[in-house]
Structure formats: structure tokens, C-alpha cells
Design a protein that fits this description.
Structural class of chain A: mainly alpha
Oligomer: heterodimer
Number of strands of chain B: 2
Shape of chain A: flat
Number of strands of chain A: 2
Largest sheet of chain A: 2 strands, antiparallel
Order of helices and strands of chain B: HHHHHHHHEEHHHHHHHHHHHHHH
Largest sheet of chain B: 2 strands, antiparallel
Low-confidence stretches of chain B: 500-508
Distance between the termini of chain B: 52 Å
Strand order of the largest sheet of chain A: 1-2
Number of helices of chain B: 22
Mean pLDDT of chain B: 78
Strand content of chain A: under 5%
Distance between the termini of chain A: 54 Å
Structural class of chain B: mainly alpha
Strand content of chain B: under 5%
Low-confidence stretches of chain A: none
Shape of chain B: globular
Helix content of chain A: over 70%
Radius of gyration of chain B: 22 Å
Strand order of the largest sheet of chain B: 1-2
Number of helices of chain A: 6
Chain lengths: ~150, ~500
């Protein structure tokens, strides 16, 4: 079980490399009329990736190190990583739809709350608002970059 | 010699208040952008590019030179204080700078970085002024096969430098190279690995990869250290007030780093900079590993050795001088910043090429004068005047800091690409880099694989096409052979030969 846990990431790399190699081969023959085709370099990379990931899988099976040490992330941290990834994806998804300020402030507040506790919420909201406004002014006023707004 | 006189005469242009204002403002903007993770001097320069239409071309080039120099040294601020390189060129600085900061010597680390940047920047600029015409002639000897062997040399050296972690380093580099193949083929109009997604046709932009790998992944990594971060904030409150003189390393420290370290790293940085496709990150990396290799105490590196900071910063600032050589002489940018400087020349109707240094010497000389001025005057002056504010960055609430980094990273990637898809790529790269880092894969090899990949493939295919598919072309061309032999030398020193015996300090 521990060995499987340790091998999960190398196996994922092996699957990715294999998929990449198959996709590279599907681009066509590596040499056409004596000239190297677009599949040549990716085919080499795919082979290299498969060989390296096989070595990593083999090593992970041989290792005697406990799985807990190999993946030392705590449950809370894993939960936080997931929350940050979801928050960021949501922010990106609505960024152009609802505009910068309405998407940035909740995003900043979400990250602040992920990294802290839920005490002093009004203060944290004000900090989120100030951070969003500060970044808005930096981009739009200091560097003249147009950010999406509701009216655009 | 005429060119040197022209550069010296160009210093008089800095006496013009308006020109000086542009140069100083350019330096400050470059420093701020380089210091903010997720933003780089490249982005600052790209954003300021439209302004050059309204500027005199000489002034615009001088401002570009100061932004370039600031971008190289400014990245060290956050690399040292929060372990997030503000610019890719400062990746190696973080290795020793951040441990020094954690040991309460952050101001000193910034001081070492500034002195090394000043030295490296000055050496790079002086060498550029003195040797540019000669180097341009020599660069003509490196043909397509040589360029491939050079890039291969760089990739191999980067991987084997991950001692004890070579397979993981190679896998990460391989992933970077794979990511670089996404999109339009470099030689024929064929799309690869796009899976029908139109957004992938132009490939993955460099900015999302850099921001994702170094900013987003850092925030994700910090989740495990959040509690420690809160303790650190409490500890910072008790940190003694930083005075301006804290930034000045004692003479004994500078002597300990050694003139040889500064000079050797500057020369490595300059030499790397002259090679098309190379950049500050590679210069800093090679100088760092060379310093570790030649050190009598290699075990102290990565734990707060000022020599590590000096090597990385001298080299990456010396790269500025070197990288301008291929750009000015062949129109081949050495890194993204020189690519934008190339754009400034082109939009002003100036064609870079072998004749530029003679026909347009009057335009180029002031830019080189500004580069030298930025290194010698603006770097130490900025640190001395603004240094106490730099160090305060660690006292910022970490929850707010990470939220701001996340915001600037995501919005920064939008500003750089104006694409929601590339913003998503930033997040995807961040998650990938986070998982790689967590399992001991070096992200630097992924990044360099991504950066060098397109050129590596192009030169390989061109070389083999020119030789009708005969791989012996890499062994029969002297320029290629030179880099292949150099690769073997590095493999011997870094992978085969045992590390130098460490001195037994207990007996001393």
C-alpha cells in the first residue's frame, strides 16, 4: 500500500509520458523525404520521458523510506491547496465577466481567510478591498494597463 | 577605441535633467517590477514600450538599459526576503539569500547582492564597450550545429548539476521541453499537442510558466508553513530596526567572498550573456555551481553563504552587458528583455546587424553609458536610500502578502498575455510546479527546458536537414565539437569526479 502511494506520482508521469509519446507518433513519421518532420523531436522527448519515469517508478518501489516521509503534506495543508486552486480558478473564470474589482476583492479575501483564521472579518474585508484597489491603481494608473470592468 | 571615446562622451547626456529623469525613473520602475513576484522587468519594459514612440530614441534606449539593469538586481529583493525570486535571474540568489535572511541577516544579504550586482553590472558593461566588436566577430564562428551543441551543453549541465537528483532533474527538464513543443511547429505550419484547442495554437507563453512555477507554486507550498509564517510575523516584530549602515557588508566579509569570486562570476555571466538564448538565470546558475565547485566549503552553500549571493548576482548583472552583444550585432536577443529592446530599435526604423555598431554608434553609445551608470551609481544608491523599506517586506502580514501575490500573479499573467486561457495555464503550471517541488523535482530544470526547448529543436532539425540526416555533423564542425567537449568536461567535473575533499574544520 505504501509502495503504491509512493509510486503514484512517478506512475502519473509515466502515463503522461506515454500519452505524449503516442500523440507524438500520431503526428506522422519522424522523417519524410529525408527531412525531419514535426514529430521527430517530440518522439525523442516522449521516449526519454518514458525511460526516466520508468526509472522513477522502479526507484519508488525499491525505496524503503516510509510513504509518510515522501509525502509530508498535512491534511489541513492539502485542503488549503485545494481551496487556493479552486479560488484562483473561480477568480480567473469570472475575471472578465464581472470585472476586476468585483472578482479581485472576494478572491483576495478568500486567500486571506485560507491563510488565517476567521477572526476580525471586517478588518480582513477592508484589507482585501485595499489590496484590490491598490493593485488596480498600480496597473491602471501607474502602468496604464486596462483591466476588465463591468462596463467594458 | 573610437567607440570607447564615444561612450565616454555620452555620459554628458546624463547631465540633461529630462534624460536623467527617464533613466532614474526607468531604474526605479524596473526595480519595483523585478521586486514584485509575478511581475518582471520584462513586463515593465513591455508596458513602457508604447511610451518610446513619444520619446527620442536615444533617451528610450537609455531608459531601457536602466530598466534592464534594475530588473537583474531588483529580483534579488524578494528572492532574499521571501524566497520568491522577483525575476528568474535571481533564482540562485534565493538559495543563500533566504537562509541568511532567516538567520536575521537579510539586510546584509541585500547589501552583498547590491555590491555583487554593481560589480557584475560594471564589468559586463565595460566588457561590452571594450570587446563588443571582437566578440561579434567570434560569434560568427558559431553556426547552427554549434548553437544546438551549446543548448544541449546548457541542458545537460543544468541537469547533472542536480547532484543526487539527476533523474528527477532530467525528468523535470523533459517536462519543460515537452511543454515547449505545444503549439505551432517552429519550422513548418503544423500544430502539435493542441487537441483541437485554438488557444493552444500559439503554445504556452513564457510568463504563465514563470509566474506559475515561482509565484503560484510558492503560495501553495506556503500552505504547509502557514502556522510557521504566523510565528515569523511575531518574530519580525522583535527584529531590531534596520539602519542604512546594516546594508553595508563589512570589508572583512567582502574579502572573504573574494575578488576572484566577483570577477570569475562576472566573466561567466558576461560569457553566458553573449550566447544567444542564454540569460541571467543561466549565467547566475553556472556561476553559482562553479563557485560551489571551486569552494573549499561546498557544504555551506544553500545555508546562507554570501559567496553564493555574490556569484549569482555578479553573473546575472554581467549578463546585461553580454546579452546586448548578439542583439546589437546579429539581431538575436539573448533574453526576453533584449528582445523588447530589439523592438524599440525596430519601431524606430533601426535595423540591428553587424553594421549597427559603426553606422549607428551615436545611438548605441549613450545606451551603454546608461547601462554602466545604472550599475555603478543607481544600484548602490537605490539600496542605500530605499533599502530600509525593502527589508520591511517580511513584516507584512503573510495572509495579506500571499493574497496580494496571488492577485498580482493572476492579474500579471493577464496583463502579459490578455488571455483568460493563459491565466488558467498560470494556475496549471503552479499546481504542476507545486507537486514537483513537493517531491523533490527541481523546477529550474523544467523552466530552462521550456525556455531552451524551441531553439534546441530548431537547431537540431536544421543541422540534420543541412547534413542530410547525418548526425556526424555535430562531431565534424569545430564549433559544435567545442561545446560537446565542454559538455564532457562538465560531466566529468559534476557527475563523474568525486567532490573535493571537505576540510576537516574540527581539527583547526
Amino acid at each position: 500500500m505504501q509502495s503504491m502511494k509512493k509510486s503514484f506520482f512517478p506512475l502519473l508521469l509515466l502515463i503522461f509520458s506515454s500519452g505524449y509519446l503516442i500523440s507524438a507518433r500520431s503526428l506522422g513519421p519522424s522523417v519524410v523525404d529525408g527531412r525531419l518532420s514535426p514529430s521527430f523531436f517530440p518522439s525523442i522527448l516522449g521516449c526519454l520521458g518514458v525511460v526516466l519515469s520508468v526509472i522513477l517508478v522502479w526507484r519508488s518501489w525499491r525505496e524503503t523510506q516510509p510513504a509518510e516521509k515522501a509525502d509530508s503534506t498535512s491534511g489541513i495543508a492539502r485542503y488549503r491547496v485545494l481551496l487556493i486552486a479552486i479560488s484562483t480558478a473561480l477568480f480567473i473564470a469570472v475575471f472578465q465577466q464581472i470585472g476586476y474589482l468585483f472578482s479581485a476583492t472576494p478572491y483576495v479575501l478568500a486567500i486571506i481567510l485560507i491563510f488565517s483564521d476567521r477572526h476580525a472579518l471586517p478588518v480582513k474585508f477592508l484589507m482585501a478591498l485595499a489590496t484590490s484597489l491598490g493593485a488596480y491603481l498600480l496597473f491602471t494608473q501607474a502602468f496604464n494597463v486596462r483591466l476588465p470592468g463591468l462596463w467594458s | 577605441m573610437e567607440f570607447v571615446q564615444l561612450v565616454l562622451a555620452s555620459f554628458s547626456q546624463l547631465l540633461d535633467p529630462l534624460t536623467l529623469t527617464y533613466v532614474v525613473c526607468g531604474f526605479l520602475i524596473g526595480t519595483v517590477f523585478a521586486a514584485i513576484p509575478g511581475l518582471t522587468a520584462t513586463l515593465a519594459l513591455a508596458l513602457l514600450l508604447p511610451l518610446t514612440y513619444s520619446l527620442d530614441v536615444t533617451t528610450a534606449l537609455m531608459a531601457c538599459a536602466s530598466i534592464y539593469m534594475a530588473g537583474m538586481c531588483g529580483g534579488s529583493i524578494t528572492a532574499i526576503t521571501i524566497n520568491i525570486p522577483g525575476a528568474p535571474s535571481s533564482m540562485m540568489t534565493a538559495l543563500d539569500g533566504y537562509p541568511m535572511h532567516k538567520n536575521g541577516k537579510g539586510a546584509l544579504a541585500l547589501g552583498h547582492a547590491a555590491i555583487a550586482s554593481m560589480f557584475g553590472g560594471a564589468v559586463g558593461a565595460l566588457l561590452l564597450i571594450l570587446l563588443a566588436p571582437v566578440i561579434a566577430d567570434l560569434s560568427l564562428l558559431v553556426k547552427t550545429t554549434g548553437k544546438f551543441s551549446l543548448l544541449l551543453f546548457a541542458m545537460i549541465v543544468i541537469v547533472i548539476a542536480q547532484r543526487g537528483n539527476v533523474v528527477k532533474g532530467a525528468m523535470a527538464a523533459c517536462l519543460g521541453l515537452m511543454l515547449a513543443t505545444i503549439g505551432l511547429d517552429t519550422m513548418v505550419p503544423v500544430t502539435r499537442f493542441t487537441f483541437g484547442l485554438a488557444d493552444l495554437t500559439s503554445g504556452i507563453e513564457l510568463m504563465p510558466v514563470i509566474i506559475g512555477a515561482f509565484a503560484v507554486s510558492e503560495i501553495l507550498t506556503q500552505t504547509d508553513l502557514a502556522r510557521q509564517a504566523q510565528h515569523l510575523r511575531e518574530a519580525v516584530k522583535t527584529m531590531p530596526k534596520v539602519r542604512r549602515r546594516d546594508f553595508l557588508p563589512p570589508w572583512s566579509d567582502i574579502r572573504k567572498v573574494g575578488f576572484t569570486c566577483y570577477l570569475r562570476s562576472s566573466l561567466i555571466g558576461y560569457a553566458v550573456g553573449t550566447l544567444p538564448g542564454a540569460g541571467g538565470s543561466m549565467g547566475g546558475f553556472l556561476a553559482y555551481i562553479e563557485t560551489v565547485r571551486t569552494s573549499r566549503q561546498p557544504q555551506t552553500f544553500g545555508k546562507g553563504n554570501p559567496q553564493g549571493i555574490a556569484a549569482a548576482e555578479s553573473a546575472n548583472n554581467a549578463v546585461c552587458g553580454g546579452a546586448l552583444v548578439p542583439m546589437l550585432t546579429f539581431g538575436i536577443p539573448g533574453d526576453p528583455i533584449t528582445a523588447i529592446v530589439l523592438g524599440v530599435l525596430v519601431i524606430n526604423g533601426i535595423q540591428p546587424g553587424p553594421q549597427l555598431m559603426t553606422d549607428q554608434a551615436g545611438l548605441i553609445a549613450p545606451m551603454l553609458a546608461a547601462l554602466l551608470f545604472s550599475a555603478v551609481v543607481l544600484i548602490p544608491l537605490t539600496l542605500y536610500l530605499l533599502g530600509p523599506f525593502f527589508i520591511r517586506i517580511v513584516s507584512i502580514r503573510k495572509d495579506v502578502l500571499y493574497a496580494a501575490i496571488g492577485l498580482l500573479s493572476v492579474v500579471g499573467s493577464y496583463v502579459a498575455t490578455f488571455s483568460t486561457f493563459q491565466m488558467m495555464m498560470t494556475l496549471a503550471m503552479g499546481i504542476l510546479a507545486y507537486h514537483l517541488r513537493k517531491r523533490g523535482f527541481p523546477v529550474i530544470t523544467l523552466l530552462l527546458g521550456f525556455i531552451l526547448g524551441p531553439n534546441l529543436e530548431e537547431f537540431l532539425r536544421r543541422s540534420l536537414t543541412l547534413s542530410q540526416g547525418n548526425p556526424m555533423t555535430f562531431f565534424t564542425n569545430p564549433d559544435s565539437m567545442f561545446f560537446l567537449v565542454l559538455t564532457l568536461v562538465f560531466i566529468y567535473f559534476l557527475a563523474i569526479r568525486k567532490p573535493l575533499a571537505q576540510p576537516d574544520t574540527d581539527n583547526n
